[in-house]
Amino acid sequence: xTGSTTTHRVPYYSQWESxxxxxxxxxxxxxxxxxxLWQKSGADSREEYAFWAPRMCxxxxxxxxxxxxxxxxxxxxxxxxxxxxxxxxxxxxxxxxKGLIYAPFADWATRRWxxxxxxxxxxxxxxxxxxxxxxxxVLLSVHxxxxxxxxxxxxxGGHLVLAVxxxxxxLTLHNPSGLPGRSQQFHHVPWSDLHRFFxxxxxxxxxxxxxxx
Length: 213
Prior knowledge:
alpha+beta, seven-stranded antiparallel sheet, 7 helices, 213 residues, Cathepsin B, Chain A
């Protein structure tokens, strides 16, 4: 670890338009189709929004990074359609989607916005700390129960969060499906807890000026 703490002031975006209603969406108490702000997503219908919102964690993280580095931030669904065309997601049936697929995502982010995006299939805690200290952001594959630091998640990976800070005590996450007032923005996760959720892979993002060392 670098020995110092770095936290980037990155704007937060939820994968649902109504971030305050996330607890209802993730428990099923409310359908995403009943999100009162669904039209802000740019979806053509409630049904389209309801299908994609639970799968939009990667696009929410990308929107955060774009905002942080001063790029215009597209609405969620138009951005998702671009990602589909780029091969970052693949619709494999009426109800199934493969993605986020890192390599085409990284290529797209570089071509589209001039970002530097480096796929890291093997990523450890010290790497995350180093990249954050360099001014980068890191997209991490974690299990969704990181939102509550669950003691026994059923697996690692499957959900994407954005590491925006790191230091000797742990890392700081923006979680697109985090809980309001608890684990959405600047959620501190001790290094000793990360291993339960983290799949050991991700994508390092840097602005064009910084590049990725």
